Structure formats: C-alpha cells, structure tokens
Amino acid sequence: MLEKAENSKRTHKMKNLLLSVFALFAISNFSNSQSCTPQGNQTSYGTSNVWRAYVYDGTSFNTYKGYVTEGSAGSPNFDESFGGSNTTFNTNGCSTTTETFSVRFRLTKSFTNGTTYTFTVGGDDGYRLSLDGGTTWVINQWNDQSYTTTTYTTSSLSGSKNMVLEYYENSGENRISFSVVNPGTENTNTYGTNNIWRAYVYDDINFSTYAGMINEGTSTSPSFTENFGGGNTTFTTTGLSVQTETFSVRLRLTKSFAAGSYTFFVGGDDGYRFSLDGGNTWIINKWVDQGYGITNVTKTLTAGSYNMVIEYYENSGENMLSFSYQAGNTLAIKLMDFSGKEENNSAKLNWNISTSSDPDYFEIERSADGNNFAKINKVNGNNGINNGNAINFNFTDTNPFAGKSIYRLKMVDMSGAVTYSNAVVVTTNSVRSNQVKIFPTVISNNAVSINSNATLNNAIVYLTDATGRPLANQKFGKITAGQTISFPVAAAHNMRGVYFISITDNNTTVTTQKVMIQ
Predict the structure, then answer these.
(1) 491: helix, coil or strand?
(2) Which of 46, 192, 254, 357 has the fewest Cβ atoms nearer than 10 Å?
(3) Residues 424, 292: contact at Cβ < 8 Å?
(4) Nearest 5°: phi and psi at 14?
(5) Rg of the chain taking only CA atoms, in angstroms
(6) DSSP assignment letter at 312
(7) Could you tell me which CATH number the domain at 433-517 has?
(8) β-strand 391-397 against 346-353: which pairing, if any?
C-alpha cells in the first residue's frame, strides 16, 4: 500500500512538470508570435517611381503585416511572385504565408499632358488599378484566376496622380505585375530622307494601335531585309514593344531619282505593297497572308523626288520584309526564282536565272537576323545547267546556324553590275540537345553552367516554372563551341523547387532541362 502511494505521488509530480513545460512552451510561442511589429502607416504613397506595398494576411486586407517596395528610380514597372506559392514572405515588419494574403500598392507619379500612356497589370489571382487614389478603378479584375493581363490606354492624364494597385491571392500560384509605357510620339506622316526609311510600327494588322518607330536602310542605300527579331517574339521600337505575331508597319522615304528605268523588288511574309506616290496607288500589291516571296516591277521615272511608301502586315508564323532596286532598262541577270529547304540537317539552296542572263558569279550570303549578311561561298556563272527554259544553280550549306538561317544571293554580271536576290529562310536542327549540357541540375548557389559542343549564334537562356511561366531570361548572343557560360537564377526571387531552363538559338529551342533550386 505504501509503495502504491509513492507511485501515485511520483505520477502527480510528473504531470505537474509536463504541464509546466507545456505552459512555458506555449508562452514562448505566443511571445515569439508577437515579437514582430509591422512597419509603415499603410497610407503613405511611394515617390520617385518606387511603390510602397502594404502586405496583409487575408484576402481582404485583414491583418496588416508590414510593407515592401517595388519598382526603381528608373521605372515603376515590376513583376513580383512573392517567393512562390504557400511559402513565407518577409516584409519590413512581420512575415506572411503566401496562400491567402493581399497587398495594396501606392505610388504618386507625374504624367505629361497630352501624352498617351498604356498601363498593363497582370495577376494571379485578383487585381485592380486606380489613378485617383482608389476612388475609381480603370482596370478591375477582382476575381480568382490564373495569371492574366489587362491593358488600359489613356491620353487624358496631366500632373501628379495617386496610383493605387490592389492585389489578392486566394490559392495556388502568386504573381502581380505592373508596367506603364508611352508609345512613340512621332508624326507618322513624316518621310525619311538620305536613303533611311522611317518605319512606323503598329500593334495590330490594320495600322490602328501605334507603338513606335524604327529606321531601315543606310545613308548609302535604301535596301534592307528585316525579320523583326523572328516569329512571335518581342520587338522594340522607340515607344512600345510589339509581339511579332499580329502587327503592321508603314515605311516612308522621300528619294530623288534621275530620269530612267528602275526595277523595284519588294518581298514579304505576310502581306506587302509598294507605292511611289505617297500611297495613292500601289505598283506592287501582294496584300494577302503568304509565305515569304518577292515581287518586282520596272517603271520609267522622270527626274524628281518621289514619296515612297511600303506597307506590311504579319498575321502569323515567320516575319520578313525586304526592299531593293536597280537602275537600268534590263536586268543583266534575271532571277526567276530562289528557294531553300532543309535536307539532312543542311540548307540546300536552288535558283534559276533566265537563259538571256549574263552572270559572272554569285556570292551566297548568310545571316542570323536578316540584317547582317556575310559571304559563305561563291558559285561561278558558268557552273549552271541550261535546261532550255532556265539556267539552274544550287549550293548546299552543310554548316547552317542552329535553328533559322537567312540566305540571299549577291549576283554579279559580266559588266560588274551587282544586284541582290530576295532572302530565303531555312530552319534546321543543326544543334541537338545532347550537344548542350546544363549543370548542375540541383542548384544551391543561384547559378547554373551551360556548355555547348557546337557554336550558338543568337543564344537566349530562359528560366520558367513548372507551368511554363517565364521568370527570368538572358540574351548571350554568340556562344562558341566549348565555351561555358554562367546563368544566374537569383531572379527567381529565391524560390525553391522544380524549374526548367531552356536554351534557344535563332528563336529555335535547342534544349530544355529540369532543375531543382534548393
């Protein structure tokens, strides 16, 4: 009986000890949970393009946690993913879990009267933008959704505006982005001079939404070949960038001609047309969706100044526009067709000239961007095969660029006169994925190394998440065979988990590798 009593006392003491430890643990946790103090007054606006972003726990701005900043002195534009989904995000004050939270961004910014501005906001989930301190919303997508963007364009802003951007995340991935840009303010009726075209770019196929301007041609020649960076990519102008999938360009140039006969060559993919009288009439008109082709027309001009206009649109697929001209009544070399195709990972080129042509030689030129061509070979004019209807020539480039190569012919006749052909595009897979190594696949130092056994000429490296959402990219340009480069992944906002690194060359994907960021 005595032994049982002693055991009961010991059990009672142990329970009291455990209760005390539990109480201390609970007090410690409570103390730690209360140790942070949210900074910021929730109402002040950022200045100098830097937003004040007030962070809340809860999707309806419930519990204030502190603030962060977005944007920089040079630009208020930003793209924020808060460290990833369902993780801890730190503020100036307390942290929050990025699963059910909200953020209110504030920025005071000045705008120029009469200038057109385009605001683009994207979010996953809800977002809305106000230009009057939150009284009204010019963009309002306040609902659960995967990442999407909304654009608002206005030319009625003047002076200082209190911008408010609100965002909430309910579940899944997290992302909010903001950008404001103003299109080019050029007079789109102005003509270029001194052989340099003024090319006005529009973000649609009907010349409706003006983006900005570029120049084509040089002071010595108005001839050019332009591929606008490739199919379905971003192309920069003096104002806004456009996506090269549905866009249009109107080019203007005033040029003086001596009296005589001139042959004009215009090519395009898709539609193109050419005018010598400011667009009143079109002496070349191929205004249809089509693969790249070239059209020429010969005109007898009186001496004087001509307002030349080229109009072009791209609807889908590849993009190409070219212009050249030649003086004289007849072409010493009359090119009937020039084509190229991929064959056994090489680029096979074929061209035909008329039997009345008088060629000395042809130089085959190759380019990665459609602007900068370099000679890769020479074919003598007497090497052609005369089939009675035309003289046929061919050449095979056994070492084309990875992805897309652009070719043209420099044609020299027996008198030394030089003309150029249209350009043709050949796409090959000359760099295979097993020739490019990405290492390590488990990343712990915010960088990855890339080595290619073959030369890449226009390499871009992309970091995407598991859904394909772009997080970071870097243009490296030429990477010589055997060269190892380093690609930083810190731009992923210190995310952890599985991601993908892709490498493209001339807008063709060379390889994609899954990596783990620790």
Answers:
(1) helix
(2) 254
(3) yes
(4) -65, -40
(5) 32
(6) E
(7) 2.60.40.1930
(8) antiparallel
CB 461 within 8 A of CB 472: no
Residue 232 binned pLDDT confidence (cut-offs 50, 70, 90): confident
DSSP classification of residue 422:
-
Q: What is the DSSP letter of 316?
A: S
Contact status, residue 199 vs residue 211, Cβ threshold 8 Å: no
Copy the structure tokens of residue 19.
């209760």
Residue 239 tokens read as: 């104002």
Beta bridge partner(s), residue 434: none
- For the chain, what is the total number of helices (H) and then of strands (E)? 1, 42
Q: Which two tokens stand for residue 415?
A: 């008198």
Collapsing DSSP to helix, strand or coil, 176 comes out as strand
Distance CA 241, CA 244 (A): 9
**Cβ atoms of residues 448 and 487 within 8 Å:** yes
CA distance 81 to 139: 20
CB 364 within 8 A of CB 412: no
Class of domain 183-329: mainly beta
Provide the pLDDT confidence category of residue 151 given band limits of 50, 70 and 90.
confident
- Kindly state which CATH superfamily the domain 333-424 is placed in: Immunoglobulins (2.60.40.10)
**Of 194, 199, 195, whose CA–CA distance to 211 is shortest?**
199
CA–CA gap between residue 62 and residue 58 (Å, rounded)? 5
Q: Could you tell me how many residues make up the chain?
A: 518
Coil, helix or strand at residue 217: coil
The set of residues, in sequence order, having a beta carbon less than 8 Å from that of 384 and lying 6+ positions away, is 353, 359, 391, 392, 393
Residue 13 is inside which H or E element, if any? Answer: helix 2-33
317: closest CA among 296, 349, 297, 290? 290
Q: Do domains 51-181 and 183-329 have the same CATH topology?
A: yes
Evaluate the CA torsion angle 493, 494, 496, 499 in order and state its sign: positive
Q: Read off the pLDDT of residues 154-193 as tens digits, 9 standing for 90 and up.
A: 888 889 999 999 999 998 889 999 988 877 778 899 999 9
Sign of CA dihedral 358, 424, 290, 242: negative
Are 216 and 226 spatial neighbours (Cβ–Cβ below 8 Å)?
A: yes
Which fold would CATH assign to domain 51-181?
A: Jelly Rolls (2.60.120)
Provide the 10 A C-beta neighbour count for residue 166: 22
Return the SS3 of 384. Answer: coil
3-state secondary structure (DSSP) of residue 31: helix
Residues sharing a CB contact under 8 Å with residue 175, sequence separation 6 or more, in sequence order: 79, 80, 81, 82, 122, 123, 124, 147, 469
* CA angle (476 as vertex; 473, 482 as ends), nearest 5: 125
Tens-place pLDDT, residues 29-55: 433 444 789 999 999 999 999 999 999
Provide the residue ranges of all domains of the chain, joining segments of one domain with +. Answer: 51-181, 183-329, 333-424, 433-517
